[in-house]
Q: What sequence folds into this?
């Protein structure tokens, strides 16, 4: 709340000093330093030269780091190579960076022990918040573990945010940012059903994962609403990966089961399913319609472009960061201990080129 | 070097205590806790129950964390959504996890200021090493900045490792893990040339990026070796992304330039190029051959599967971590200040289905 005087003499160099010495505008310096805009090599070189001369960067950060003051958000993610949650992380870090905050990402490898070790480490380092991403496996154990994390972080003045994970039951000091997972699956299945598909192969994902359970429930509700049977032998569980989509479709085709559409649990699973169809000489969407879930960049890079459910992953990340920042700015106001906010973002179907009405009833 | 006694009474719970109480083998507990193997829900529940009862996990990590003892490796990466370097990070964290080390990832958004802030933060936190990933833009400024990082980390008892970046000149305390970038491009271009291609569209990447420069040089050398002209108008620079591959090929097709093959700077650029060809009614590889670079999973998920250059990204990550661990184990032996090791891993062409001899000379 205190105002700072801009002084070019005694204090550390300001962005204005850099701009003056480099003979460019403050906006240009900002563009070079932010790295978010294209700048000419010449401008970049000129500005960075002055930045080094004035030791501007170091000073700017020394001010805040000296007191351990740069707010830092830690994101914990199962695997660094998962596309969907990388976009959540991107959203968090984009919003953090706008505020001058730093972001760190830790990977747990689905290992609860590593997750705990990272949460402990983050607590000791005094991070502003810990954001945990991704579906949860074991509901009961998950609730206990997360409640413990939430309380331990809260006691240390930090805060737990769960993104794309089930909210915590009871009075637990954590914020949940979620998306309408089941609603998206309901809409996607309805899209296939309203195009006339009746025999749909469903590849919802790992049976024990909360997101896959929600996607399967959404699809089942849509079938019920349309009065279409939902035969269990048309549901094949498996990992959220390309290989699973490929193998599942290969095996169903070998068995000779008939279907006119595939409802895949993720875009990556859909990509695998499409490759299996093509290898079997089946065209998408002429012979079989295929839809995915997530709307990662891959979806619009496939041929045909994949109709899918848009999940606002990056927006979820931004919302999570904003929730933390708002909480911090309202700080010290005794909101601790029972806020347990639960924000749910909408999902929607993105219609592209992978769905057509079936030639004849499957 | 000191041996630890396994005691089940006074000291903290051991994995053996957990196994005994849960009535399962030590191997089973290890499988549940590692999260790397499929285990039944029942086994997982049983083991985690005992883990909670004995507070096994907490104890195990409390021991090392109490003294700030868990070695932690920080990886700094430009963008979290880049596939290739996510695999380096995966390699680092896999090798780190095997040793019980933790890994943190920070993203710089191509912003030198954020990079500096993260390196400073890591130095203060006493991380064992900072691993910087990805191509570099401005050679001179890069050398200065990295040398400063290396010395500042070294002074704090940490160590700088550069992966997929140019090595540092002079006596700088840093380790570089690199791959034979130019050699891979030479081999890939030779593969097209030996199939008979003479008019090749080259999309090497951003002109100012060191990796793109290396890939272009490798291709040029191959053309020289085959005595084939390398016309500058067939080289189109642009970002390493799908959109660039798509737009560049669309524009070259519009201009009416003839070519029988495309040498793309990355697999993602190749995917964009393939979509542009398909939209124009051209078949791969019957009408145009296409090759990529990186060998990310996408390459074998495209139709046809993409011939490309395999870069051992994950192995580079493992090698980087091992270099740090070896250094640490040999620690305190005055190897500081001038080790500057430079490890170069090999690359090779992976032949898949996207190359055929041209129908007639282009």
A:
């Amino acid at each position: 709340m205190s105002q700072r005087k801009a002084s070019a003499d005694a204090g550390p160099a300001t962005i204005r000093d850099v701009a003056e010495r480099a003979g460019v505008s403050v906006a240009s310096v900002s563009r070079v330093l932010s790295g978010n805009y294209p700048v000419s090599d010449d401008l970049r070189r000129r500005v960075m030269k002055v930045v080094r001369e004035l030791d501007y960067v170091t000073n700017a950060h020394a001010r805040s780091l000296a007191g351990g003051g740069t707010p830092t958000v830690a994101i914990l993610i199962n695997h660094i190579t998962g596309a969907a949650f990388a976009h959540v992380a991107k959203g968090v870090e984009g919003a953090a960076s706008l505020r001058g905050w730093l972001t760190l990402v830790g990977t747990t490898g689905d290992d609860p022990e590593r997750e705990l070790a990272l949460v402990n480490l983050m607590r000791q380092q005094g991070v502003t918040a810990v954001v945990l991403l991704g579906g949860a496996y074991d509901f009961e154990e998950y609730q206990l573990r997360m409640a413990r994390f939430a309380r331990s972080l809260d006691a240390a003045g930090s805060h737990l945010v769960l993104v794309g994970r089930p909210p915590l039951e009871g009075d637990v000091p954590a914020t949940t940012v979620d998306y309408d997972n089941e609603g998206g699956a309901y809409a996607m299945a309805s899209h296939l059903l309203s195009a006339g598909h009746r025999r749909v192969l469903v590849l919802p994902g790992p049976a024990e994962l909360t997101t896959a359970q929600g996607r399967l429930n959404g699809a089942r509700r849509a079938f019920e609403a349309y009065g279409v049977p939902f035969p269990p032998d048309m549901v094949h569980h498996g990992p959220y990966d390309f290989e699973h989509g490929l193998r599942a479709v290969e095996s169903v085709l070998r068995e000779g089961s008939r279907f006119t559409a595939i409802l895949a649990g993720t875009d990556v699973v859909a990509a695998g399913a499409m490759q299996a169809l093509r290898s079997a000489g089946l065209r998408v969407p002429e012979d079989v319609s295929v839809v995915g879930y997530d709307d990662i960049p891959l979806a619009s890079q496939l041929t045909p472009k994949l109709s899918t459910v848009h999940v606002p992953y990056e927006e979820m990340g931004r919302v999570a960061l904003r929730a933390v920042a708002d909480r911090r700015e309202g700080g010290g106001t005794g909101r601790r201990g029972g806020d347990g906010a639960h924000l749910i973002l909408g999902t929607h179907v993105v219609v592209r080129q992978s769905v057509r009405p079936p030639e004849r009833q499957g």
